[in-house]
Amino acid sequence: MVSLDEARAAAERFLDLQVRPQHPYTVVILGEYVEDEGDAWLFPYNGTGYIERNDPTEMMLGNYPIRVLKETGAADFSEQ
């Protein structure tokens, strides 16, 4: 069973591989909106410009949160 901190690290690695290379701006996990779904943690994320300055050019639309399974620590996109 992975801890929340370990799951967040897995979500950060997933962002590094699957999301951040596609965007010219910084993408961060929205820590206050992380959800415990029983068998997994869900990590929402968005561009820092949108979070900090409400800059619509850094708003990520239609992105699924990252799901990290508690049993294995495997990360993928959640279709929730």
Automatic annotation (TrEMBL):
Residues 5-75 form the Immunity protein domain. InterPro entries: Imm35. It holds the Pfam family Imm35. This is Immunity protein 35 of polymorphic toxin system. It comes from Actinoplanes xinjiangensis. The lineage of its organism: Bacteria, Bacillati, Actinomycetota, Actinomycetes, Micromonosporales.
